[in-house]
Fold these 4 entries.
Entry 1:
Amino acid sequence: MNNRPRKLTLSEWDSRYSQLQREGLSEPSYGGPLRRHLIEQKDFRLEQLRFDNSPAALRLWNFLLTENDRLRQARANGDKIVGTMKDLGTVPVMAYSLPRVRAFYPDGAWWTPCLMECSDKLLQQAEAMGIDASFCPVRAMLPAFQNGEHFPRPDLLVCSAGAVCDDFSAIAQRLERLGHSILWWEMPRRRPPAAGEISCPLPGHLAAPRIQVDAVQAELRRVSRALGELAGKSLDDARLSEGIRAANQVRRLLDALRKTVYCARAAPLPALEMLVAEMLAIHFCSDRQESLAVLDGLLAEAQARVRRDEGVVGPEAVRVFWVNPVADLRAMNLLEDLGGRLCGSDFMITHALDLIPEETPPLQALACAALSDPMVGPTIERAARIARECQAGRAEAVVISRIPGASHCAREGEIIRSCLRQQIGLPAIELEIPPLSDAMLPAIGSRLQALIETAKSRRTT
Amino acid sequence: MRVFLTTPWIPAEWIRAHQLDPCALWCAETFPCHPSPLGAGVCLFAEWVVRFAEAQPDAALIFASACDQLRRGFDTATLHGRHRAFLFNLPATQTPAAKQIYRSELERLGRCLCELGGRAPTPESLRCEMLKAAKARRRLLDAAPSSPARAYAGALAQFHRDGVFSAPPAVAPGNQVPLAIVGGPFCAPHWPLLDVIENAGGRVVLNATETGERSLFSANEPDSAGGNPFDALADASFNAIADAFQRPNTPLYSWLKPRLLARNVRGLVLWHFTGCDLWRAEAPTLRELTGLPVLLLEAGEGPGVSQRQVNRVEAFLETLK
Amino acid sequence: MICAGIDAGSRAIKSVLFDTDSSQILASALADQGVEQERLARELFEELLSGARLHRAQISSVVATGYGRNTVGFADTTVTEITCQARGVHRLAPDARTIIEIGGQDSKVISLEEGGRVRDFAMNDRCAAGSGRFLEALASRLNMSWEDLAELGRHSKKPAMISNTCVVFAETEIIGLLAQGAPLADVVAGVQNAIATRVSALAGRFVSPPVYFTGGVALQPGMASALEEVLSCPVRVVSRPQFTGALGAALSATQSDGWH
């Protein structure tokens, strides 16, 4: 079998898996053929996707697709489970600082109906629970909580409120009304420091007034007390500092992976795997130690391919910066099928990619990290970061994907496009990608293709 | 100088005490509430606010951070360097940190008001404005149960626009079906809905929209014997917030339920703008917690009442009669 | 060298023969779209060749664009409508900086740089309210032709307000208006305004004059002025607006090196 980097269908992966086994593939306990997820969990979408052919990618997919099982196993082993919602990257760092505690994002359940091609009826059930298609696919979380067929019911639910997207906030409030007690904590809407205010630097070249950092710090202290009570151990500064260092290990690895892949001449890893890998930053896919191993494997594979000047997508592909995650993962394959490749990304979790300051008292550092969330502050600051990273990644075009029903998408796309046009003059399109985009594929493909043509036409002058 | 507010949860008396003229934007004569083409998912109310900001770049305008639509509306309005827009961080929770945020935002707003030409109030002048506002609110609250819906909406609008109270004529309760309207901002262009309800045999006895009775947060009379009136203002205003954006939003239901009971409300109209997830998501909770039938009505892309809305109201009242 | 462009739209197929030596359009033709898209495209193309007394062998390249471009099996290559509209309009109106194209079931706003290169674009192909489909639905409901309908709209004194953003619901609203005695001319003008309003929402802040209007709907009298009203700037209708996509496709056959 040809071992050169390429993307395989699920059927092709069956053969590939057999080949790897013959070659002595070593797998973690959650390893196995990809097809079993289709059979066991009914992730029918896997048949529509194409996956990188490396053992590292196999490990990544198995890691992602076994999360619910691993959480149940952790519960059976006596670990406490924390459901952290909305802040995307801060509270899990705290939770994982405690022994025998796992944190995960129930928000992440939004991929479930997409992967299961809606056979689980989660979206219809959400509608029956009063949350219809005018809300984003995160609404799948509601029936997932009720039926318990996906993730285990957490021992503690923590959710940020305030400068968070409306539809998620509304869904979480509905969840509480359904009997799931939530520890809410306040996230102020970040603003630049005014004249006369003490300015605190934040990760991501941002700044906020001290008063906001203090407020978030006070809130995170409340959260840390709750986590400590759950674990039966004090979440003191020493534990938090250790947790921050460990989280930064993951972030450093992810940073190296992104730089290796996005700066390479030919993309050594596909866009789909990069999206999934990046999501490991927010809660380590419920296993911080294992997430290091997974990312390490991906990085090694990417580096080896770069050394051999090999890629899944050639150097002629148009370099595209992608904004916002996609409900239907197929869009990532489609980008490459049409002649594009990922050269950078803002999947709404850039603050979970930045290092948490280690020299600062840990709760303050976490408050700064939480406040640097791109969704919490002015959209122009998010756009400025996108512009910087577009330049770093030599982007030729930008895709801003809209999540159907997501309140922040109503205006932010226009603001980001306007800023990008002004600052770097790149063509940028907004593209709505529904949970199952099959019927929309011609229209989505047309737009992507038009963008790629536009970018290519700009190359010749 | 006029200072326009997009939310009732920032006390107007604070602005008045700075010798500036607060005006609820949704009542302003220049509020551009005409049909507006909307991008996908954009709330009409937020769009009107943004259009006002663009048409009047020199007007002082206070946005509130309570929803994504207005937060990003602020981003849109300030994209091209609009200088007189202020985004007030309205906390969603009721934690001590949130209370401190609210208080510090009032102080920050005060500093901005001074930059606009206002003058920092003395404790006495602030106390005086608080007393006046509390008195007007109390009188409006007293008039609520007996006022016709449309006249009461007008009286509320006048209070929010000019700070004055004029009593709407009292009317004896008839045998119409008593309804409550609850939800987001309910502006003058949409008041014909109240007439539609009356024509169909109903009567709005509780206007619990953001711009309705709920906006008259309980008269917070300052302690005339002493104490810091700013503390009293910050505390009372923060504690009085009762809205769907809060987390948890139990204050909303604590406010709503006794009033529904006291006024024998038999049905709820949930009024919201298309794109407003915060209110739309409350429909099942409203049904469950109040035990009342709920009619969802969405504001469209313009003023007035559509035939579709008329049909729904008529059907709703038929089922209640 | 003679190149051919075929714009396989959702409602009509358009084809253009372009002589690169003389920089002239030699011929153009249009036919209704249908289910057998490849056959219809081929028939149109052959009819065009026959009318111009040319053979297939004399055509150096065939480029297909439009919604159904991938069904035109005999095309040498396909290019999207964005690129083709930009090229076609730029050829006819080199000063264009914004192109608005309203087709049978979608609308596009294309922003051009000097020299005609596409800077940015926005498309709405998920909602009929900003497309010619809205006018078609009205014409069909009233048993009128598209042309008669358009002519009527000229006589409007006060365009009706159509509040529904969905074509299906708007149809009901229109019937209601007519039943209440609203002049038909005002209703037609109201529909045109509704389409223009949707397009202006799509365009957002990215409209830089000069603005050119193309696509089949540009032939409707009143549509350009409806757009001018909402965009607050002059809107010029490009010549032969149904054919700019096909022209751009033919020009794409010559563009191996980008823009001149």
Note: Chain B has twelve helices and eight strands.
Entry 2:
Amino acid sequence: MRKTWILLGATSSMARAMSRRLAKEGATLLLCGRDLTDLEASAADARARGAAAAQVHHFDARDPATFAPIIDAARDLDGEVNCAVFVGSMPEQSAIDADPSLIDGVIQDSHTGPATFLTMLAPLIEERGQGTVVGVTSVAGDRGRIGNYVYGSAKAGFATYLSGLRNRLTRAGGHVVTVKPGFVDTAMTWGIEGMFLVASPDDVAKDILKAVEKQRNVIYTPFFWRYIMLIIRHIPEFIFKKMSI
Amino acid sequence: MTWNKISYTGWGRASAASGSVARPERQSTLRRMLADQIAPAFGLRRSYGDVALKSDGSAYDMTRLDRVLGFDPETGIVEVEAGLPIGDLARMFAPNGWIPAVMPGTGFATIGGCIANDVHGKNHHEAGTFGAHVTEITLIRAAGEKRITPKSGALWRATIGGLGQTGVIASAKLQLMRCDGEMMRLKERRIDTLDAFLTAFDESTAPYTVGWIDATATGEALGRGIFEESEIVTGTDDGKEGAKSVPMNAPGWALSAPIVRLFNAAYFRQVPAEGRTSVKPISKVLFPLDKIHDWNKLYGKRGFYQFQCVVPPEAVETLRAMLEKIGHSHLASPLAVLKKTGAAGSGYLSFPMMGYTLAVDFPNRDGARELIVELTDMAREAGGRIYFAKDGVARADQIEGMYPDQDKWAKAVATADPDGALTTDLVTRLNLREMSDA
């Protein structure tokens, strides 16, 4: 059966890894992001690796006018429409402290932008009676920490949105997978100190596609982050507030 | 974070570099960063010594720039980013009847590395070196971006096999070769002596040939080994991705002399006396060691060296003397390879030339460096040369004259990179960019 995947934030290394795996399965890809030149390169790569087709679309989480053309393009294709969201931004917390107006952008990139897009896409999934949404959030959304709590709060908001969307789409035959990666070896984390148990983008992509196939609801990737976060979530607040982790 | 302070090594892990490394994920990022800071680039660091290392400096890790940028099914010309592993390229296109015309002994070598070292493969006698199948290279230098082709003269010849000294290779176009399928028919037979080996190479008509040599053998058995001839045949590779990996550094005795001798004797006898023929996926025949990830850890934490030289066809006695010396050193590992090479490549510093190439791994133990220094002198005296992609030991004075076009190369490099921003540890150690007064 024909499968279409919309990848939002397709220039990210996790999206690239996922695009390669989907290409190998012969999917049609809609690669969406801001750097169209880079996306054209990824689209050519996807075609060489077996994608049925690969399109490039301008997508800016802060510009909702870019959303409808992507959904229209997906509507023009038969079969199952799926979407994976890799967008998000994480300025240094110190930069945010110096300029609180940055917060709006972080929330738009990581939460309200993709949530608006998915709300516009949901009717198409319901109409077709099938399709999976993958929302990549973060373990940072499980508990606010001094180092990145604005980013964490945006991801937490997005995770709650995904939970509601799952509740909605399940009724129509759709599904939503919430993905919480730990440390992943991407451009965002290159050279940051204190990283441990770092996963490769391809490890994450592999986990995501397995979760899609098995219709999992919430996954941590690599899996052991579920247990790390279980512990972190259970540290009493009166202790947690004094910790720097 | 853009620059990451790390320590890194070549495949042999015997020498390391500490420095700042950036790993751009987009061509635009690479260009923006290079405009700010020109520095050498490396890929998956499958070269053995220090050719891809830059101590106390900056370097670009190209491994995230690993995409196919375009393919013309009419001509078979593919454009790729420099960080793409050649094995990925082979796996992607072989099902459609195309394959890289030249592939080295590992599929993990990146296209940028294949160009910068002008690699050769088991079909060197038929297909020449990698550079012969490159049709265009996009170089980024302090002076900006430049697309070069075989018609670009000195700059092209200084770039093919040029150790990355003419600019950072951002992408390239390659002429792929037609292939009938994804499988190879492999014929293996035992060879008892060095002379029999040379005859086998002379008589073979197979497109891909290579000899595994038992480098621990001496006396009567000197030069014994297994001769492999193969050709691409029809069929599809339905094998799975599965590869094993070496989880940790092996202890020092793992590749000690008695164990290597036992292993080699068993390996020699696993091929029946009457020989055998099998059909295997291309990658299994051309990249036999790739199925064990991180096999370099088998040499323990001190790592290993590889010596590889090529000598002219008449220097058979030098080969014999080298094998004698290696056999008596008790330092040889199971990995020793002999191949008859064809015509020289087009690069000023292209390694292969008409004759025989011998490659042997040595664990980094006492005496290994001294032995490699001696072997290097023997190669030079015989009119041969050593391979920079493998070397981590030679002295600058030892390689003088090995590469007759070195001055032409140095001149083109001086123009392309006047400030010496692209030098690497090997280039410094061997003083390669110095022009002789002549």
Note: The first helix of chain A runs from residue 13 to 24.
Entry 3:
Amino acid sequence: MRRLISVLLENESGALSRVVGLFSQRGYNIESLTVAPTDDPTLSRMTIVTLGDERVIEQITKQLHKLVDVLKVSDITEGSHVEREIMLVKCRAATGEVRDELKRMSEIYRGQIVDATAELYTVQLVGTSDKLDAFLGTLSQLTELVEVVRSGVCGIARGERALHA
Amino acid sequence: MEMLSGAEMVVRALEDEGVEHIFGYPGGSVLDIYDALFENSKIEHVLVRHEQAAVHMADGYARSTGKVGAVLVTSGPGATNCITGIATAYMDSIPLVVLSGQVPTSLIGGDAFQEVDMIGISRPVVKHSFLCKTASEIPEAIKKAFYIAATGRPGPVVVDLPKDVQNPKEKFPYEYPKSVHMRSYNPSKTGHKGQIKRAVKMLAEAKQPVLYIGGGAVAANAAAQVQRLADLFSLPVTSTLMGLGAFPGTHSQFLGMLGMHGTYEANNAMHHADLILAVGARFDDRVTNHVAKFCPNAKLVHIDIDPASISKTVQVDVPIVGAADTVIEQMLEAVTELNLEIDNGQLADWWEQIEGWRARQCLEYAKSPSVIKPQQVIQSLYKATGGSAFVASDVGQHQMFAALYYPFAKPRQWINSGGLGTMGFGLPAAMGVQFAHPGAVVACVTGDGSIQMNIQELSTCLQYGIPVKIIALNNRALGMVKQWQKMFYGGRHSHSYMESLPDFVKLAESYGHVGIRVDDPAKLDEAMEYAFSLKDRLVFMDIAVDPDEHVYPMQIKFGGMNEMWLSKTERTQCDD
């Protein structure tokens, strides 16, 4: 079971290592982890994508909550939610044919070409992880992928549900 | 406002926190704090011989009093030597504050002399930790450290103090915070009312209930509440290794310890129960035996201050998050509120069944005229101390014998490393108990293996005149390892034999203590009484015990709770 867990925690040095340490120490899985300060700079918001059965997820949320730096924990996959990941792909674009096709593909996937040289295009794409995977699959058939960087998933619940301090 | 240096702030904050004893060892990066401590008359500093022992002493101090234990060590090796002690306290939820020196902030991360990332290395075994980067942070960090250590599910907290932050030449305004406010940490003691009502209704209806108590009942000082609940519902009570004493060991409703080396009656009562009320216990693997076969007919009600301990290993029916004392009070109130009729007569059949198991007398053992049995030593200790001593134990067979053969009357009387199982814990823990209770009778039950893991503290005992009585069950082997090798490894006793033991009597004497060697069963009681008559002396009793004795009962691996070896040749017949 893939789960998105949102964590609101004190924006203090060491807080991130406690979260990451918890996962490795207790043998939980991290698919991706994103973290950044919120509109309130004393707080950080984290989205963790993890895998596990119901009991494991329950333990993860309880153990996260037990960390002294953690204010709120929510499994946002329990309700409807929005999740996004950003990806930058640098790919070989040496011929006119490839360049044209790359441009078309980027448009279809609503991506943008954010850097271009004589040899290379860098495409930016935002979406769900599935969409990013699909785009990469298509691209890799078209040309050589030089470098891929993905942000990891960040997510938010739809509607009124929100994590507040 | 008073102006103090960082080093002075540390000492003053400890004073303001009411710390009377601190266990420690000086070194380069805490010299300023030690200098500030030099003329202090309010805090007694205990100079240990190894930092691990400092933490165990603070731990024994904390376990026996319920107060937060305090430790002060230097950076690098001073800090790393604390880790086993901190992990021991963490596993057993013992409140400690460990102050460690650190290299100056400008050198952190540069592989400086005696630098180690203490915050990082201790992270998996602390409840929380603080690194003070400026002197002004010290009062609040120490206040929070004590608060976090003592509240909620207690545990150890580390405060790392870089050398420059302690600088005696730079003074800052000092004020110790009166209270703590942390938006991310608000432990609650009271349980959910609805769940509590469900729980008492289930208790009133149960035909075969068992009250299963653990270390949480001790931590919450819930002995009185446990007793009232047990009385009201006429409940059979069993305890984990950590909970011993939270219900009187000699009480007729007490079935003894449960689990791997639990009694026949306790493990059978658990297995056949229709309702188990767990209070501050965590269904540890040393209790449940094979989880899939655990208590097949029982509904489970679980009271615990830590939500993460609930439904961790065993799914429970009624979870109640809260402190044991508060929640049981709430339960007793709910009984009145709901006008519950409690018919204790309905438990008559259940008690009859329990008495049947009890009649098996699983703790009986055959004495010998020529060799002392380890069980006999504990019984002799019980007699000599009238059952009222503090007993700190090391880890191994002797620990199980002490747990089974010394029925503890009161909580905090039994001091042992239950979760981590730390050999070397016993002597320093006993010393910590003695510092907290100067007039009390304190025994350290240990073995020839365990005692050698912190034996250097005999020197500390001499320095401070600590009259603990060391009861060493000497079987010239690592008894528990040897027992497992005999039972599960075809008797291949790989490296479990101690070939070159010191002469413990001479060793004790060389540290200025009294040593006594006992090997004649007929002289055991007399020697024990003599040892305890030397009230102001440390006595090391080196007692030669039967090297082939095993701890029984012992649960059979992958079985239910009721599947046990009762002796080397007898095992239970299981009806299901």
Note: The CA atoms of residues 73 and 160 of chain A lie 16 Å apart.
Entry 4:
Amino acid sequence: MRTDDLIERLSGALEPAPKGQVVRVLGLGMGAGALLSALLMTATIGIRADLIEAMGGSAFWLKFVYTLVVAGLALAIVDRLARPDGTAGRFALLLAVPILVMAVLAAREFLPADATIQHALIMGHSARVCSILIATLALPLFAGLFWSLRRLAPTRLTEAGAAAGLLAGSAAATIYAFHCTESTPTFILLWYSAGILATALLGAALGRMLLRWS
Amino acid sequence: MIPQEAQYREWMLASLQGDASCYRKLLAELTRHLRGYYARRLGLDGAEDAVQETLIAIHTRRGTYDPSRPFTAWVYGIARYKLIDVYRRERRGQTVPLDAAGALFAADQVEEAGVKRDVTKLLARLPEAKRRLVQAVKLDGESIADTAARTGLSEVSVKVAVHRAVKAMGETLRDGNADG
């Protein structure tokens, strides 16, 4: 086809572009992924039995603040990297804030404690499964976000994949927090972050391969 | 800032509202820039396909343009991505420097004029019939089938004639007497 004819054809069939396409497509992929992930959790490991009581304590909310702040920043980064001219920009630097805050909180309880308590702070009672469960719960979200990105126009595929993995991991960690009974900053900083990081690395590794669109 | 930014952005915003005439103008202008951009990097052979693929991508992904950001950077992002895509398909291990959008828009008038002048000179050395074929297939982007139908030649003869003509032009260039 001649290029002039192509232009005629494209402009002839032009319809107003729906507003907020990026947000809508991301919302769709992420919403479906989150729903699946939540269903997967309630059907297998379940929500913690003492949820209502635990909600009364401030330690319970710490996990959610941490994972939701990371998820919010990750969403902002994905939204930018979903566009051809997007860069992670200052949002990537802002990720240091929640991590530093958690590190300070963890250091305050960890450093003064004696060795037995330190060991208990690190291991909690679920250190062996925490990161793995978070990474597993992240898979539906991961798939949903990759589905979304392929319909948008990312051009930095490794970065976009990493950001999508970060978002999937932190959203999954938020869901997992309804199951998990751990609440010390040390444990959350170590094992929640490890689960989230694993998904981000998976995204970086698969981005170039799976996010290619044409 | 790219000089055409304000004008193109205005056309783009109108296009997103569904204004077909602004959209047609915009695509025609972008085609000019894209042709220069790809011709310099892929040669005349691959350029037109890349231009068309990019126009289609601009069309199908136009919802990803954020009006609060420069439009020329958005287009350049797509053009560069498509260039990398072509290199990847051809398995040329070439890297594409991350230039500013100026790589697509700014230097272009001067360079494009230069390219056009060279091509015109080279074309002028071809016999009339061959020149017409090259013009139709390589510069106007007409398909081999259409050209064959229009001229009454077989597709194979069109292909062979164009191929030989382009090769001859290339040899002229290599011998360094394009200016002669």
Note: The mean pLDDT of chain A is 96.
